[in-house]
Specification:
- By secondary structure, the protein is α/β, with parallel strands linked by helices.
- Helix content is about 30%, strand content about 25%.
- Helix 3 crosses helix 9.
């Protein structure tokens, strides 16, 4: 089958269209004819050798896909060949076929194209897991999300809006901030203007936010501890800014804060299935009704995977960059 291969190593690595062996269908799985996949920053890291796939996962890039069911393993119920589906993957999306545990697969709503659906699983499930299942963000509360114009950010804004949670997001330009507000964010801060903690405290009446969804890491830690309210939760899902810094443990005690580290990719399939069930139970109706939609910045053919990675690296996009595998 056609698939994206990685040539070179480190920063010199380049993505090229090549071939890979068709994945083996294992018990409990579906085989999907991939129509489209989407680019995530984890893919950029893996291409440079910084984020290897978990044991047993495909070495092909791609953490999500949408397409049609080709084959159903014996004993799997609820899916049939020809059905339109979208799936959370541990790897393998940048290819014509992918095999995945049925618990990580969701039907595609009638009003959403397969190209759009490819941009849903990774970011919407990540946000649901971390904001709602782990951090238990309260209705009527406040959440701070970085990268409001990213795939994670645009998904978080919509989920928080749907759940009745007020959101503060950061973005890298006034134009991106304006788009975040149009999407439903309550406050959008241009992080290039300086520290965000004073503005967060001002916007929340001095109390701070209930939850921070943090993909930056070290350079923002002190500000996060400042702008979290008493009993607040910081959920760390990425280290784009670095992993090592000093921490004032005293503020953790005084404010009774919780720091939660979270990843999705390497979780057991049973846990992923539970995350999918929880997401569909809470937000499935909103997805079906069209109140939640992936924000797709642009669509490129699979052969232009390197160009797609370059776009995401430059952070010039708003929402997700999708790779179309089949017409």
């Amino acid at each position: 089958m056609r698939a994206i291969a990685i040539e070179g190593e480190g920063k010199a690595a380049r993505l090229v269209l090549g071939e890979a062996k068709r994945p083996e269908l294992r018990p409990g799985e579906l085989r999907i004819a991939v129509a489209a996949t989407a680019v995530n920053r984890a893919d950029l890291m893996q291409a440079r050798g910084l984020y290897p796939p978990p044991p047993g996962a495909s070495s092909v890039l791609g953490l999500e896909c949408a397409g049609t069911v080709l084959e159903v393993a014996p004993g799997v119920a609820g899916f049939a060949p020809g059905q339109r589906v979208m799936a959370l993957l541990a790897g393998g999306g940048y290819a014509e076929e992918a095999c995945v545990d049925a618990g990580s697969v969701m039907p595609v709503p009638a009003g959403i194209s397969l190209v759009e659906a490819a941009a849903i699983p990774e970011v919407f499930l990540t946000c649901h897991l971390n904001l709602f299942q782990l951090a238990r963000v309260p209705r009527g509360g406040w959440a701070l999300v970085h990268g409001g114009g990213s795939g994670i950010g645009t998904a978080a804004i919509q989920l928080l809006r749907e759940a009745g949670v007020r959101s503060i997001v950061t973005a890298g330009s006034a134009a991106k901030c304006a788009r975040c507000l149009e999407l439903g964010a309550d406050v959008a801060l241009d992080y290039s203007a300086g520290e965000f903690a004073p503005a967060v405290l001002e916007k929340t009446g001095g109390t701070g936010v209930d939850v921070v969804l943090d993909s930056i890491g070290a350079p923002y830690l002190a500000q996060h501890l400042t702008c979290l309210r008493v009993g607040g939760r910081l959920v760390l899902i990425g280290l784009m800014g670095g992993a090592k810094t000093d921490i004032n443990l005293g503020i953790l005690l005084v404010k009774r804060l919780s720091l939660i580290g979270s990843t999705l990719r390497a979780r057991p399939v049973a846990e992923k299935a539970e995350i999918v069930r929880g997401f569909l139970a809470e937000f499935g109706a909103a997805l079906e009704a069209g109140r939640l939609r992936p924000i797709v910045d642009r669509v490129l053919p699979l052969a232009q995977a390197q160009a797609a990675h370059d776009l995401v690296e430059a952070s010039t996009h708003f929402g997700k960059v999708v790779l179309q595998v089949r017409d």
